[in-house]
Design a protein that fits this description.
There is one protein chain. The protein has 7 helices and 10 strands. The chain is α+β, with helices and mostly antiparallel strands. It has one domain. It is globular and about 70 Å long. It starts with 5 loop residues before the first strand and ends with a strand.
């Protein structure tokens, strides 16, 4: 594995430096810089100790008081032999399947790094996170999950959100995340339907976006894939980006 920096502990001044440099996580949202310092893992430039990349390793997801929501991507088959009918319908079901699991969150890199450097930096950090989990196995869930950004158009709009969520909430989910922090999914999920949804009811653009990695998530996806992360048949509730997982058992 290519190493481009050195691991060190999180310092209060790192938040100030990252904020002033305009870092964004791979889903395009602002970093949750008020999260506990012990969650953060940081890669620094060995020559001047400046931050190069970061992530947060969250021990347990979705525990009280705020459950973690995602859509499970499944299917329902409609069959009637006498009519010659057999059709599989892809479906979405809102749920809390990752409750108690662990998460890699807030993957971000210094803007001046090119794509290959960003991928190497994130792969180094993810590898370090896996080593931490292995050393303290009882503190973490059965699976380590990673939410990846879904597709967005040139204006930043999500086809998946416009085809589904915007029918139930007229506001901007990105603004909701910036305002509410970690609580945004729970508040947003409260206005979304609990019934099984057929993908065929959505626009073609929304259907095509489901489970696809958007441009801002490609580097993180490549880094995670190199360490064994794969699709978990779940997608984000705002932009339909995939939720990947890695079994820890």
């Amino acid at each position: 594995m290519t190493e481009i920096g050195s691991l060190r502990s999180w310092r209060p001044e790192d938040a100030t430096e990252i904020l002033s440099a305009g870092w964004r996580n791979q889903t395009g949202a602002a970093l949750q810089l008020d999260a506990p310092a012990e969650q953060w893992m940081l890669l620094a430039d060995p020559s001047n100790d400046r931050p190069l990349a970061c992530l947060r390793l969250v021990e347990r997801l979705g525990l009280a008081p705020l459950p973690r929501y995602s859509y499970h991507l499944g299917q329902i088959v409609h069959a009637a032999a006498e009519l010659g009918l057999f059709r599989a319908q892809p479906t979405l079901l809102l749920g809390n399947d990752h409750t108690g699991e662990s998460e890699l969150a807030d993957l971000a890199c210094a803007p001046e790094l090119d794509a290959s450097q960003q991928q190497a930096a994130l792969a180094q950090l993810i590898h370090a996170a896996l080593q931490r989990v292995a050393a303290q196995r009882g503190r973490y869930g059965r699976q380590l999950v990673l939410e990846l950004a879904g597709p967005r158009d040139a204006s930043g709009a999500s086809p998946f959100w416009l085809g589904l969520g915007a029918n139930f909430y007229s506001g901007d989910p990105v603004a909701a995340e910036a305002k509410l922090g970690e609580a945004w999914r729970s508040h947003l999920a409260a206005v979304l339907p609990r019934q099984t949804l057929y993908l065929s009811f959505l626009s073609a653009e929304a259907q095509a976006a489901v489970g696809q990695v958007g441009a801002s998530g490609l580097v993180a996806a490549a880094a995670a894939a190199s360490l064994g992360f794969a699709d978990s048949s779940h997608v984000r509730i705002d932009d339909g980006g995939p939720v990947w997982g890695l079994r820890l058992d």
